Amino acid sequence: MDVRVRINELVDALIRHNRLYHQQNEPEISDWEYDALFRELETLEAVHPEQAREDSPTKQVGSAPIAELVPFVREIPMLSLQNGYKREPPEEDPWIDLRDFEERLRRVLGEEAPAVFQYVVEPKLDGLAMELVYEDRRFVRGGTRGDGVTGEDVTHNLRTIPSIPKVLPPSAPTRLTVRGEVLFDLPGFEKMNSAREAAGERRFENPRNSAAGTMRQLDPKSVAGRPLHFYAHSAGVLPERVPSHHELLNRFAAWGFTVNPINRRCTGLDEVIAAVADLERLRVDLPYEIDGAVVKVDSTAQQDALGFVTRSPRWALAFKYPPPTAQTRLESVLFSVGRTGAVTPVANLAPVRVGGVTVRNATLHNEHQMTRVLGLRVGDLVEIRRAGDVIPEVLRAVDEPGRADRPPIAYPETCPQCGAHLVREPNPDDLDKVLIRCPDKLSCSAQARGAIRHFASRLAMDIEGVGEKIVDQLVTHGLVRRPSDLYALTKDQLVNLERMGELSATNLVSAIEASKARPLDRALMALGVPMVGESTARDLARYFGSLDAIMGATVPELTGVPGVGDNVAQAVRAFFDEPGNVEEIERLRARGVQFPGGARVANGTAFVGKTFVLTGTLPTLSRDAAKARIEAAGGKVTGSVSKKTDYVVVGADAGSKLEKAVELGVPTLDEGALLALLEGAS
Ligand SMILES: [Zn+2]
Prior knowledge:
The chain is of the alpha+beta class. 36% of the residues lie in helices and 21% in strands. Zinc ion (ZN) is lined by residues 337, 415, 417-418, 420, 438, 440, 444, 446. Zinc ion binds at residues 337, 415, 417-418, 420, 438, 440, 444, 446.
């Protein structure tokens, strides 16, 4: 048989089976048969490379890792959508925002408004917005949303997603950009997590964040095989005129893109409301996460006439549902001990699906919440809520007969880890509530583990190799009780630990050694002074210049540091007043930790030497005005968020920069906070 014919057959068959498997979930052949075809193709291509097709499935997993992500600049900005929210009945009409939306359409169109609008209602996928660029009907480039104009180029990873066509049929325009969402399907996500767990790897917490993290990987090999999908929902560059949105979606499908099959065409607002309500009911059973519905005016002519308001099209509305809730049984309450000794209650639940994800634990926040607000008893039927990225929480206990007969859950009197009697202190964050702490800092293994992990963590001393498993072993074997003990570890002691060879023991010792020279702000973070995070540590280090100066500073001197308030100043003072902390610092010094400070910034404002990133639309300041004022105060404004960014100023519809800030732990400011800071600086 002609090699070229066979290669074509194989490529077409593999593409088709990929689609059946990944998009329709209806495989026709076994994985084994698939692999056999794949290997045959690989062999033929290896022997006849000149015959290999560009869209061959063999090419989609093997591309080389890239050195760093580069900017992805789009021709037509990606806009954000106006939001509407489902309201709480019966006080409010739940659909009032949809009615207002149509009223605005009528007002803007005036006499041109049709008697009845045609709409398309789409599920609002909780994924990662993505743009794909096709030239000569070939997929050439793709990138994330970013600030709407510039995102990150993630082409190498997009190539590994089976539902992204690499070559378009002749019916497609030669140049085209397609927009949509990349997301994990939930069954695939669960499966991937089980596999990771079995391999001793960490479970991914949340499908959306993991999709974002996955797309930013440099090596596409680690992305290939993850169950990601792309759903097309709109066009950027589109050289041909398409009369309506639903027609555009039909064409996308004909060109090989996945279009969500539950998108619905609606005539008039009542059908829209019915579709939006149906979608909310369907939501729990969908194989992906949604947080609302997108309602779009169907007619392209009407869309053009409606135009844009600031940075959003007038013809579309993102209608958000309240966060999903579910009911399940409270099986027990666990009390977890943090690194500062704070004991917090965690609900252990009968597994339940909420918004498509299986939930087993939920936070109960504190004693006040658990006993006074919720009045929990073991065995209660509880309602839980899961909103976006936050940890699920217990909203209430359902009143049932016999519930009152069961005893309420009491807080333990002693530390579940070390048995010390717990103490109750006023909570500095909320004086109405007490903080319940294990006072036995030294012998409480939970606190020791937490403190050592924190000390070695990336933003603190950044000691590579001192992860959770190692710390657990070091503490259990009594090798390390406090951070300073790390600096006395020898290679011989480490070699005896589980999963530790000669080489890794040597590496660990040198990583610990190298951390002795970490700058003052990092070391300050590492000490775990309450309320002192990354940026406060930096402010203190810059202002005082040395650890001794900080340790000797009075509360009024500390509040002299821009950005340091009364509570922080008192927490810092109290920390250094505690003899145990001073002794630990002396031990660290004796073992060679240097705490090197920089030059003291004389009367520096909060802005000098600080890097700001602006994102989203601020309520009153334009981006240029905000930039000018920050620069006038001595700050610097840059375009992208990194570990070196001091603040991200966040306005409406902030995109990936905000996500990045959260991911890196960079503090965020709203306009009010920025103005207050500017006020303080002048
Ligand atoms: Zn304890």
